[in-house]
Write a structure and sequence with these properties.
The structure is a single chain. This protein starts with a helix and ends with a helix. The protein is globular and about 45 Å long. The chain has a single domain, classed as Orthogonal Bundle (Recoverin, domain 1). By secondary structure, it is mainly alpha-helical. The longest helix has 26 residues. It binds calcium ion. Calcium ion binds next to strand 2.
Length: 95
């Protein structure tokens, strides 16, 4: 049986391919993914300028699309930010 982490990785791949076309996300697909899958963690997903900026930041190879490798950078960046909030919260509540 897959572990929690293995399940997470599989979900990450499945979610990416649910929105991607030919293994890449264009601007519109990235926006839809952010609206549907990151609405609680990413408050700027409804702001078109923020989507453009995120797209530009993620597109490491400059082809105007976000591939899986580039998408993972977004997930990692958000996970790091969330882990910092989690640690701060745990410190405050004394756990
Ligand atoms: Ca790219």
């Amino acid at each position: 049986m897959p572990s929690d982490l293995e399940n997470c990785m599989e979900t990450l791949i499945k979610v990416f391919h649910r929105y991607a076309n030919n293994a890449s996300l264009n601007r519109k697909q990235l926006r839809t993914l952010m609206e549907c899958e990151l609405s609680n963690f990413l408050k700027s997903q409804k702001d078109p300028a923020a989507v453009d900026k995120i797209m530009k930041d993620l597109d490491a190879n400059g082809d105007g699309l976000v591939n899986f490798e580039e998408f993972v950078a977004l997930v990692v960046g958000l996970s790091i930010a969330c882990e910092q909030c989690y640690t701060a919260h745990m410190k405050k509540t004394g756990k």
